[in-house]
Design brief:
With about 325 residues, the chain is an alpha/beta fold. The chain has a single domain, classed as NAD(P)-binding Rossmann-like Domain (Rossmann fold). The chain has eleven helices and 13 strands. Helix 3 packs parallel to helix 5, helix 5 packs parallel to helix 6 and helix 9 packs across helix 11. Bound molecules: nicotinamide-adenine-dinucleotide. Nicotinamide-adenine-dinucleotide (NAD) binds next to helix 1, strand 2, helix 5 and strand 5.
């Protein structure tokens, strides 16, 4: 039975790929996005253009606008929700704290309140590995305590998990939170390391390496993330949280070397102190995701970066 999936943040990196996969398998997608200019709107528009499909309905809508959001949902109540819209970024949250409250907290609450009325079969939402904050124990497990976030962004993601628990407890809403670990791949986000470094290297500008480059990240390829999101949409749980990560942590400096290799250019490196709010290492324990979602990452860093650079050379052909 085809589903009608309401996707927030459908013009985003992950949302557009989730929509594409759902449409390809025969589901209907109602997608919303406010098309904000946190990064180039042209990229968001290009993503939307490539996923055009008779079964996709797109609405320009801000999740912080309760009335418009409710009206959009009321016109065609979905069977499933995939909530990905958020204000992301750690550094940006130091400079613009209120937008995190508006979108990630108020927007999330709006959506929960409206969905309570329309009773979807499943409500899946994006959390983040950043909730682990200063957690010293690696790999990060969903059993670990996450009461000490170190950025406002992380605090809003943890808030989402708490709100979801309340709505499950009070109203029986089925909710699943997905803690994504540093997602990369074609059509990615220009504020994140992979894409950001590629752009800076091509412009001959230095790349910022925080903590003098002594950082580790569990880089996860977009299609692996999307398989996990689809498995979650298809498998309603009462209230669950899952890690979606590759579960193989890379040294940031080895990651930079690979980028240099793919671009055939050496990066100028700006060695900087640790960035406030940032974490030293991320690493996902995905045992529970494997067991309950059948989540199994398929794409290693070399293959994933190859896919990214194939796309990057094409999308930014003017730079080559
Ligand atoms: N990409 C990652 O590595 C990563 C890691 C952890 C968590 N996440 C989470 O996954 C989700 C998707 O991330 P992404 O990488 O695709 O980011 P993205 O910024 O590319 O996508 C988010 C989309 O939401 C839209 N949006 C923002 N505020 C909105 C609002 N108020 N109303 C409507 N739309 C709004 C944006 O315009 C954007 O298109 C986010 O919730 C993010 O916090 C991403």
């Amino acid at each position: 039975m085809p589903k009608t999936v309401f996707i927030t943040g459908v013009a985003g990196f992950i949302g557009s790929r989730v929509a594409e996969k759902l449409l390809a398998r025969g589901d209907k997608v109602i997608g919303i996005d406010n098309m904000n200019d946190y990064y180039p709107v042209s990229l968001k528009k290009a993503r939307l253009e490539r996923i055009q499909h008779p079964n996709l309905r797109f609405e320009l809508c801000d999740i912080a606008d309760y009335e418009k959001l409710r009206d959009t949902i009321r016109r065609e109540p979905p069977t499933h929700v995939c909530h990905l819209a958020a204000q992301a970024g750690v550094r940006y949250s130091l400079e613009n704290p209120f937008i995190y409250q508006k979108t990630n907290v108020e927007g999330f609450l709006n959506l929960l309140e409206i969905m309570r009325e329309f009773e979807p079969e499943n409500f899946v939402y994006a959390s983040s590995s950043s909730v682990y904050g200063k957690n010293k124990k690696t790999p990060f497990s969903v059993e670990d305590n996450v009461d000490m976030p170190i950025s406002l962004y992380a605090a809003t993601k943890k808030t989402s998990e708490l709100f979801a628990h309340v709505y499950h407890h009070l109203y029986g809403m089925k909710t699943t939170g997905l803690r994504f670990f540093t997602v990369y791949g074609p059509w990615g986000r220009p504020d994140m390391a992979c894409y950001k470094f590629a752009l800076l290297i091509m412009q001959g500008k230095p790349i910022p390496l925080f903590n003098n480059g002594d950082m580790y990240r569990d880089f996860t390829y977009i299609d692996d993330i999307v398989s996990g999101v689809l498995a979650s949409i298809d498998t309603p749980f009462d209230y669950e949280i899952f890690n979606l990560g590759n579960s193989k942590t890379e040294k940031l400096m080895s990651f930079v070397e690979l980028i240099e290799k793919y671009l055939g250019r050496e990066a100028r490196k700006d060695m900087l102190p640790m960035q406030p709010g940032d974490v030293h290492k991320t690493s996902a324990n995905i045992d529970k995701s494997r067991k309950l979602l059948g989540f199994q990452p398929q794409t290693g860093i070399k293959e994933g970066l190859k896919h990214f650079f194939d796309w990057f050379r094409d999308y930014h052909s003017d730079m080559f």
